[in-house]
Specification:
The complex is a heterodimer of chains A (308) and B (146). Chain A is of the alpha/beta class and 308 residues long. Chain A is 38% helix and 15% strand. The chains are: A alpha/beta (308), B mainly beta (146).
Chain lengths: 308, 146
């Protein structure tokens, strides 16, 4: 049994196997509709999340399994002071696999140390969100047909955006990757990501502050939202939240086969007039997220080989 | 040069950056010991210009690992029967438990106080330790300049 706490818990080969399985599930969902019958997924969400929780639930239901869980710390024993370790030891008797979201960084790792069932980190604070990374990888693989030789623009909050950090780590293991990091000075990628990931892996990158000028170079544009909940200071949030807005006019300079990704929710960083553009892939991306999670659940439960 | 009596048995912590001896004194809680402790500040050093030294008498159970995490450049001399039996730099442990604390307010250790504070050495060259839970880097406290 294995847990998925960080996107780097998986080797490139394991990720490839997972994405291949997700791709097959996407192509023939009916073949996989019963492989988790009799299995239960516990969704332990200590903070609200619409997309991730529903995506996990949809994934398990698509596989023929059942789901149970809680949606906030207030509706769990955490409100009475129960530790994550104790909660997961109990949940281990109720379900076969658990997806956990927690506002505190490292909580799913703690859970994995006490759990007798596989734990999937469904987001821990500003730290890791491995199933979002798998979703991003699957989306790029499905739309571009490859995960190598891509120029990827990351735009917005690159300092606090956990999806961005995870994506940089994951993509740094593929050949021919180049990053264009587009952000205001205050929200640049943290030093440790530059030094310990980009520089250490010899990945070419540039840090710029203009979206429009750099759009024509990109194969993928990954937009992010400036997240209010990651700031301790409301003034900083208000000052920086509208720094980069992608609209139809700016998009005119982009390649025809570029794709726009966004982990969602979007606030105003992508204007709604972009939604109809064939390059807008963020809603399709959310759809791919279900298949990425289906593949992960099936693999961790060991039922992935039921369909040949 | 100020002369401090030699040790029959004990530890000499050498090559402490000048001005940081008291931090180590407090960190190792040497004030709680009953044995003799000598602090030498601003001693001349060919290597460092000025340095601090701490001499601690007796068979001690000081956690040398703790010292390595906070002050990776100090050296340890172990004295037995008036002779230096070992002289070595402190070695960086690959993992430490409850030696240093994670100060990230978003870390699970800030909520669950029963958890041990665990750090892993992630960059040996720059002596970087990261919390195993949140991966926040441990920042060494340096002497404040006046």
């Amino acid at each position: 049994m294995k847990h998925i706490i960080s996107p780097m818990d998986m080797t490139v080969e394991e990720i490839e196997n997972l994405l291949e399985l997700a791709s097959k599930m996407y192509a023939n969902p009916e073949k996989y509709a019963h492989i988790c019958e009799g299995k239960k997924l516990a969704t332990c969400f200590y903070e609200p999340s619409t997309r991730t929780r529903l995506s996990f639930e949809a994934a398990m239901l698509n596989l023929g399994g059942k789901v149970l869980g809680f949606q906030s710390a207030d509706s769990s024993s955490a409100s009475k002071g129960e530790t994550v370790a104790d909660t997961i030891r109990v949940v281990s008797h109720y379900a076969d696999i658990c997806a956990m979201r927690h506002p505190k960084e490292g909580a799913p790792l703690v859970a994995s140390q006490y759990s007798s069932i596989p734990i999937i980190n469904a987001g821990d604070g500003g730290h890791n969100h491995p199933t979002q990374t798998l979703t991003d990888l699957l989306t790029m693989r499905q739309l571009k047909g490859r995960l190598n030789n891509l120029t990827i623009g990351l735009c917005g909050d690159l300092k606090f955006g956990r999806t961005v950090h995870s994506l940089i780590k994951a993509m740094s293991r593929y050949e021919g990757i180049r990053f264009i990091l587009i952000s205001p000075d205050e929200l640049k990628v943290p030093t440790y990501i530059r030094e310990e990931v980009l520089d250490a892996c010899g990945i070419p990158y540039v840090e710029v502050s203009n979206l429009e000028e750099n759009l024509p170079e990109l194969d993928i544009l990954y937009m992010t939202r400036v997240q209010r909940e990651r700031f301790f200071n409301e003034e900083d949030y208000i000052r920086l939240k509208d720094t980069f807005i992608l609209d139809k006019k700016k998009l005119a300079g982009a390649k025809e086969d570029m794709f726009i990704l966004h982990p969602l929710p979007r606030i105003n960083e992508i204007a709604v007039d972009v939604d109809d553009d064939p390059r807008a892939a963020y809603f399709r991306q959310a759809g791919f997220g279900v298949y990425a999670r289906m593949a992960l659940i099936a693999t961790l439960l060991g039922v992935d080989k039921k369909v040949q | 040069m100020l002369n401090i009596g030699g040790l029959n048995q004990g530890i000499v912590i050498d090559h402490i950056p000048a001005g940081e001896a008291m931090q180590i004194y407090e960190y190792l809680n040497l004030g709680a010991l009953d044995c003799e402790v000598a602090i030498i500040k601003n001693a001349s050093s060919k290597k460092m210009g000025r340095k601090d030294i701490i001499k601690i008498e007796g068979p001690l159970t000081i956690n040398i690992d703790a010292l390595a995490v906070r002050n990776p450049n100090v050296t340890i001399n172990i004295i037995e029967n008036d002779v230096i039996v070992a002289k070595r730099p402190v070695t960086l442990p690959s993992e430490v438990k409850n030696i240093i604390k994670c100060k990230n307010p978003r870390c699970i250790t800030s909520l669950d106080l029963t958890l041990p504070h665990m750090f892993k050495l992630t960059n040996k060259e720059n002596s970087v330790y990261r919390c195993v839970y949140c991966e926040e880097a441990y920042k060494r406290e340096r002497t404040k300049k006046a």
